[in-house]
Amino acid sequence: MPKFMFTAWTGLFAPAGTPDAVLDMLNTAVNLWLDSPDSVQLRERTGSSQLRFSRTEARRFLEAEIERWSGYIKESNVRPE
Asked: Pick from 70, 51, 43, 55: which is nearest to 7 by CA?
C-alpha cells in the first residue's frame, strides 16, 4: 500500500456523558504528568515522543486516525471474523 505509515499511540478515554469538569481535570493531570521527570525519563529510555493535546485536538486526532485506518481497511478488504 503506497504511503503506508504506522505509528503507535496511547490515549486516555472516558465513558460518554462524563462531565466536562472531570474531562478537563483528567486532561490537565495527563499533561502535567507528561512534564514530570518520570515521564521524560521514560521517553528517553524508550526512544518515544509525546503528543500533547487539548480535548478538542485529541478529538480531531482520533477522527483523523479513524478516517486514515478506515481507508487502509477498505483498500485491503479486511473483514471481521
From this structure: 51
In the chain the first and final C-alpha atoms are separated, in Å, by 22
Rounded-to-integer distance, Cα 29 and Cα 24, Å = 9
Question: pLDDT for 3-61, tens place per residue?
Answer: 777 778 888 999 999 999 999 999 999 999 999 999 999 999 998 888 888 899 999 99
| List of residues 6+ apart from 48 with CB closer than 8 A | 42
The residue written with cell numbers 518520570 in the block is 38
| Distant-in-sequence, close-in-space partners of 22: CB < 8 Å, separation ≥ 6 | 14
Report yes or no on whether pTM surpasses 0.85. no
CA 17 to chain centre: 20
